[in-house]
Design goal:
Blueprint: E1 2-3, E2 9-12, E3 18-21, E4 27-30, E5 36-39, E6 45-48, E7 54-57, E8 63-66, E9 71-77, E10 83-90, E11 102-105, E12 108-111
């Protein structure tokens, strides 16, 4: 599934689903195993509940959550809205909890 308009809402429940959105305030969710979710619009909200999922966002002020084993990579921006890097982690490792929204801050994923 893909969408480019603002405030898009995408959801998939099958295994190996692939979702992408580029509009601001997009909301993406997948429940099947091995889902791949991406968003580039500002204020994206992403969630994956299937095992072995991957979430990536280059969006300003994006938040994401996932099941144990989900890899999350979120862009971090400074006060001038310039990307300064990515925060990446795997849910279930290094204190990252399942079904908790995270954002990028200081090069790490922190609770939103």
């Amino acid at each position: 599934l893909a969408a480019s308009g603002h405030s898009a809402k995408l959801a998939a429940s099958g295994h190996s689903a692939k979702l992408a959105a580029s509009g601001h305030y997009a909301q993406l969710a997948a429940s099947g195993h091995s889902a791949q979710i991406a968003a580039s619009g500002d204020y994206a909200k992403l969630a994956a509940s299937g095992k072995d999922s991957v979430i990536a966002s280059s969006a300003y002020n994006a938040i994401a959550k996932g099941a144990a084993g989900t890899w999350i990579s979120l862009a971090e921006f400074n006060s001038d809205y310039k990307c300064v890097g990515f925060a990446t982690g795997c849910i279930g490792q290094d204190g990252l909890l399942p079904d908790v929204f995270y954002r990028a801050q200081g090069g790490k994923l922190v609770q939103a």
